[in-house]
Write a structure and sequence with these properties.
The chain is mainly α. The protein has one domain (2-58). The chain is 93% helix and 0% strand. Helix 1 packs antiparallel against helix 2. The longest helix is centred in the middle third of the chain and has 39 residues, at 20-58.
């Protein structure tokens, strides 16, 4: 998310300053953001047709 981007930059800085643990933190954090993005995409795909049909009925 928006806050995620800011924290992500912080994790990059930590990875540069620290050792492999900082890099690991990036993958864990980015994996979480990616998971939310995938879930959101699946939900949108699932309901997009229903929303389109409702929109056409209104028009």
């Amino acid at each position: 998310g928006g806050v995620g981007v800011t924290l992500f930059l912080g994790y990059i800085a930590c990875a540069l300053a620290c050792n492999g643990m900082g890099i690991l933190a990036i993958f864990v954090f980015f994996g979480g953001e990616l998971l939310y993005a995938i879930l959101a995409t699946q939900i949108i795909k699932k309901y997009w047709k229903k929303w389109r049909v409702k929109g056409n009925e209104v028009n």
